[in-house]
Specification:
mainly alpha; two-stranded antiparallel sheet
Length: 274
């Protein structure tokens, strides 16, 4: 009897550990499965009719903001506030695009400076949240589209519950490069045929003038590199990737840059010495 009780206890503890692991890992995915369909979709008078992408409670360009804008959110679900949030998230904030053009991806209107043509890519008919994200949970990190601009994109990362210190593992370079085609030679035969900007996918300490010691002392370096090992303390395995210099959404600086490069080369000197 004692053996059975101990065995049952071990099974219960193992179940709790597995469940806790699942909950932690699920931070990397979207959580739209926790939202009622009627939070986004209008219910048809025919109860058997399926919900459609056209019958929405808000116009598409405003729908995501009903939860992801701190000034509008009444969901109680603690979603990442990518508009008007107090802290800037790992992906940055769209708030600067509300007051000026050129700060990054603009969800609200055709950007007067950046337009609808991704640098190094093809012109788009429109741009909004669903250009990059799926509305429903899809198993990709943060519901990023698994196929974009004709490319299959699998993005792997460990998501921070506070959305500020995500640990990126793989896939972001391919995801960004799917639209910004000329900026990378990965899986691309129609672009420039080589690097036209800072290379990505290389170890931070591999360049002749790399300053790995300085970079390793940064307090905010978790989101500024790609860690194929999944370990944010693995400074020797850390790689340069698109988000080393840019925010995914927008920033207070031109082109969603992490720093104001028009003033001083702050960002360059975090990784380089001359």
């Amino acid at each position: 009897m004692m053996i059975r009780i101990k065995l049952a206890g071990l099974i219960f503890i193992s179940f709790l550990a597995l469940n806790a692991t699942f909950i932690f890992c699920s931070n990397a995915w979207g959580k739209h499965n926790e939202v009622l369909c009627t939070a986004c979709h209008l219910k048809s008078t025919d109860a058997s009719a399926p919900f459609t992408a056209e019958d929405l409670v808000q116009p598409r360009e405003m729908l995501c903001r009903t939860c992801h804008d701190a000034d509008l959110d009444v969901s109680g679900l603690n979603p990442p506030h990518v508009f008007n949030g107090a802290p800037d998230l790992a992906g940055g904030s769209f708030t600067p695009t509300l007051v000026s053009d050129g700060a990054g991806h603009n969800m609200q209107h055709r950007d007067g400076k950046l337009g609808l043509t991704p640098p190094g890519g093809m012109a788009l008919d429109a741009f909004d949240c669903l250009t990059c994200h799926d509305a429903h949970d899809n198993g990709n990190f943060r519901n990023l589209k698994k196929e974009i601009n004709g490319y299959v994109t699998v993005v792997e990362a460990d998501g921070d519950p506070d959305y500020r210190q995500n640990v990126y593992i793989s896939g972001i370079n391919d995801f960004c490069g799917a639209c910004h085609e000329d900026f990378t030679s990965v899986r691309n035969s129609s672009g420039a045929g080589g690097w036209t900007r800072h290379p990505v996918g290389i170890a931070l300490g591999s360049a002749a003038h790399a300053d790995l010691d300085n970079w390793s002392r940064l307090t905010n370096k978790a989101t500024q590199a790609q860690y194929p090992s999944g370990n944010p303390n693995d400074i020797y395995g850390a790689q340069v990737f698109c988000l080393s210099c840019h925010r995914a959404h927008a920033s207070p600086y031109d082109n969603a840059m992490r720093w104001d490069h028009r003033q001083k080369p702050y960002g360059c000197l975090e990784c380089h010495t001359f």
